[in-house]
Amino acid sequence: MQFQIESFLRSVIGLVVREGDCMYKKFVLKNPFQLFLTILLPFLLSTVLLLFVQSSLLSRNFENFALKQVYREQLADLQYTSQNVSALEQTARSVSTTAFFDDTITDLLYTDISSEEIVKYQSKLQSYKNIYPFLQSIYIYNGNSVYAVPREKFIYDRTAFDDKGIFPILDDIKNNRSHSIVLRRIPNPMSGIATGADKELYVYSYLFFDSQVASGKVNEAIILNISEEWLRQSIHPQDDESGSRIFVIDRNGKLLSDDQAHPMLSDLSAKPYISRIHASEEPAGSFRMNVDGADSFVTYTSADAFDWKLVSITPYNYIVKDIERMKRKTYLFVVCFIAGSMLLTFYFSRRLVVPMSLIIQRYNQLEEEKRGEFNDRKQQFLRRIIQAKGTLSIEKLGKQFHGYGISLDPAAGFLIVLFKVDRFSEFCSAYNAGDRGLLKFGLVNIVTELMGPVAPHVCLELEEDQVILLLQEDTFIAPSQQSALVDVMKQVQHNAKDYLRLGVSVSFSEPFETLAQVNFHYLKTVDLSYYRLIFGHGSMIFSENISARTDDFKSSQEKDDELTEALIQGRLPEAKEALAAMLADATAYSYSALSSMFIRILLLIRHAIGVLEANHAMKVDFEFNAYLMKLQKMETTDEILKDFYALFDRLALELEAKKDNKYLKLLDLVSQIVHRELANPSLSLDYIADEVDLSPPYLGKLFKKHRLVSVSDFINNVRLNYASQLVATSTDTITEIMEKSGFASRSHFFTQFKKAYGLTPSQYRMNAKQAGYVRKPNLDFTEPF
């Protein structure tokens, strides 16, 4: 069956190929999976689109339905609160009117009462307070006195009454008319009686007055202080999970009820949603807006009394949370549907088109091999032209260029641009041959892309570190004068560094007339590229800018001798200066003069190392041929100078180590002489210097530098150490011990001993015998070396 399918597909592909290459490429050369998906894709996309459109419409409808539902619920809550506020207003109006026509209250408003009747009037006011539980307190004001219940006293004059906030309201009837209500804070009469009671509390003061003076102040008024808690309980409770809140504002935007987001009496007029509510001409409505940083649904309505607005705010995400959950489920279903459809598609495509895939794969492989062979032949053809030493036929080259698709005219002028990879040794160490080929191919692509708009050209890889750009040049202007070309080369260097992490140096040939001269100018450009040694990495080298001297280079014997002597004598800074000066002189000449100077310097260094090895009995790790090969791989004079300096520093370390070893042996000899001649009173710096054949000042300075103590102090410490051991362990007299230790003066011996040990020799001996130990002196260098 598999064979029959493959045969059938082969016949179909053959038929398509015979009918037209264009149709073949459009149909057969597609990936088999893509081919099958193209058949299924319209149906799959239309199904998915239908699901998304349907879910979006349903989501929108459900969201509108949820908003309407929430609006109805919130409006019902607000209307319930509005009814409570209206009931409050009607009750307060009824109470104030009833009280006004009460003879007892009238007496308080318009006459002075005797002290004997205070209880009667106080009881009357208290009865009103008891009948209406929403009343927190009642004030009767007659212009001079205030009658208040409940209070510690019943009668207060205006100056002694603790609720001072009521008087500015009574004195401003322009803004506070009769039957109006004001939210304010008043002193709590229970604060000094009940434990934990607040000092102040919020009340809604209902004002009733019937007369006024010409100044606009109230003379007689009834003030009903309604408890704020009563209104708070009248607001329909909200679901805690929803985060909704209902509050009341007056016509000025001031908050008149408890709200979890703002304290009471807060001015909310600047809030955008409050401004929108006040701007609306409708008595009730809703809208969606950002409220205090949260997306919210706002519902509002006007209260029937007091010109208040009732506002309800519900987080929008709570309203649509069920819809969002349903939407996520729908999207999950669509994703699962797509995934399942794709899996089925891949399964059937593999079962049905595997034979076609094999045939197309073989065809593509043949095409790739064909294209690769064509590119290889093209590159080999260009390399042969570059390296050709004989005469080239311009006519033949024109035909070959046409065959390879090269848009260059062999008879026109040309220019060679040579790119060399900087730090090529590191490049070879970091990448294998395959990776190096890919990076060079990337460099060729960068050059080709950037040079495309500039001029006809062809780019090829030549040596391992070289890329050649053969550029059509009709102007015969020096490359350094062509700013556009130089800018493109700088961009090539920049892109190679950014994208390939390659440093590239660029060398430009002189323009030449025809392609027949290409080999000659290529070789000249290669020679020119060696001047990277002088100009450094990332340089651009132009033949017209090379100003090498034409006279023969002659090395200065004086500088040669200066370098050699400085190395032999260990004067490394002078050796480095002499080396830098020699290279600077050679740089003014040709590249070959600089190369010969390197060899000469190596010969001088080898000679100096030979002298050092002979003079200091040392062996330096330096091999002339190996070092020469190492220098030949270096690409700039800075690298070569750095390597020479490192060699000089290594020589300095080896010389210093050799000198230190010599000094250590000398100091050991001095120590041996001191211990051997300890009893000799003539033992001194001069005596020891004569023994080791050195001058006393030089020996003293050397000993102090390495032992951190003078020779005389060292001799004295060794003698004292020896004397203390004899005092503690022998039966010799102190005088005998003094003589054995080399001290010539008894007083000097006693003085030095007591200074070192804090005791006289006799005391030291007595303590040593009693304690069974010898006290060590607090001195350095007392032990033999």
TrEMBL record:
The chain crosses the membrane at residues 33-53, 331-349. It holds the Pfam family HTH_18. Keywords: DNA-binding, Membrane, Transcription, Transcription regulation, Transmembrane, Transmembrane helix. GO terms for molecular function: DNA-binding transcription factor activity; sequence-specific DNA binding. InterPro entries: Homeodomain-like_sf (IPR009057), HTH_AraC (IPR018060), Tscrpt_reg_AraC-type_HTH (IPR020449). SUPFAM superfamilies: Homeodomain-like (SSF46689). This is HTH araC/xylS-type domain-containing protein.
